[in-house]
Amino acid sequence: MFPALKKTGPSGHIVGIEMEEDWAEWLQKRIAERSIPNAENLRMDTCAMSFPDASFDAVIVGLVGLDDDYDLHRGEVINGAPLMSEAFRVLGPGRKIHVSGWLVEEDNEWMGELVRRHLPGCNKRGYFPMTADELSEILEFVGFEDIQAARFKGEYAFESPGEWMAGIGHIWEEELATIQADPSLCAAFERDALDLLRKNTKPDGTIPYTRVVLLISARKPLTPSQP
Questions:
Q1: The whole model's pTM is what?
Q2: pLDDT band for position 225 (50/70/90)?
Q3: How many structural domains is the chain composed of?
């Protein structure tokens, strides 16, 4: 949301949509703290938004799971791609959509490796990496054209093991609760986690990690496609 404000300027208006209550509250608090008059955040089902058709000049779908739109195991669009179909509906003709998704979350992969080591039946990854072809397939399915893709790699660092756990632990909350319920399992998990982080800790105490994001842009046609 905040980078988009640089594009709209003071005359534009930004609307953020968030389904999760805690994230919606967090974002609304950031808006208030920054005293931004032309932005708001709404808690709403992104697959059934209350806006009229063609309400927006641009749509950003940022770093969200598209498992309701695409079956990664079968490699096909499912359910009529409800999220992207709704994004297509509220976007104005000739306007662009920008979709981003994680290709690599090294910090999340660390947690997944540790959890699966101690809970062998767990097949969770913690995020939903999708290829450019898969995202493009969804966009083409709902009617977008002029699809373009780019990759961006970012290098980041945690200041401490606690910061890593605070940043990623909520994603693995259920699995961590299962591990913590068994004292011997919890002790082994904590030992392995500290060992992994020690191996990745720099002399200054920071823990560097890499994330790679995929960005797809596409345009809604000026006129509806003919059946």
A1: 0.80
A2: low
A3: 1
